[in-house]
Request: fold
Amino acid sequence: MRYLSGADIDSLGITGADIVGAVEDVLADHGTGRVVFEPRTHLVPDNGGKGHFNVLRGHLSAKRVSGVKVVGDFVSNFERGLPSEMALILLLDPETGMPRAIVDGTMITDARTGAMTAVGAKYLARRDAKVLGHVGARGTAWWNVVLLDSLFDFDEIRVTSKRPESRADFAERLAARLGKPVRACATWEETLDGADILVEASRLTSPEPLLRKEFVRPGALLVPYGTISALELSLLDVVDKVVVDDWRESRSGNPAFGALRPQLDAGLLTEERVHAEIGDVVAGTRPGRENDRERVLFWHRGLSTTDLAVAHLILGRAEQADAGTMLPYR
Reply:
């Protein structure tokens, strides 16, 4: 089987458009029932609360590949010079069970998350959205902003994070990449209030209602997906439509995790309150945004199938280039 390291993947020239295309394609497959999807499970070791592991599983019928991803979520890894999320993806032959590849899933995790944000915005944001407010500066944050800007070409981008040095560095790197000013803001209010697209990718260690409903103006799209909730409990009062990646996934895993877990636990977010799953919207079986005044909330927790779709794309390119290392199995 083929082992693909991060350096191997970097050598293949995979573009943001490639990743967005792979994610949008597999979301359409979700909407037409051409995937087998299982909600994530968590492994929480006795490490004093330093972090936990997510285990994601799925199968892509059209591409004839199955797989499993294990990804760590360790908020304080920056203190050791490590990514907060590091992952491995195992791709499997669904006809024989034979392992096909082991793939470094760290970049894939970040990029497919950013692509999910971008694809969601393509269908759920106003087409004339020009102001982006983004909370969070690590991991998936880069891909969120870069891929969103590739679709909307924002006039204004505001970013913030807990540490002043991280938000300043993030804004500087984004400005260099995008060729436009990016404003580092000191507060959530300054970053989010009145933005056309609001993305919350914070790294809280305990729930805190930092994202308030008055920030979400008519016509806005809100995308919250921090592991620990940062939403005001009553925020759904102003939301016209809630779209999720998968309703079973929304309710799965450790009850401490999930941006809208408090709303679920309080009975404020129910299956009846959910307008659609994003796969139904991409496949065209449910409408997305229907007018420019709607406030839409898109909650994505991360679908295993998007990891597998991007990993499968990368494996195909690697096979063409004969990249990576072949490992004996039996």
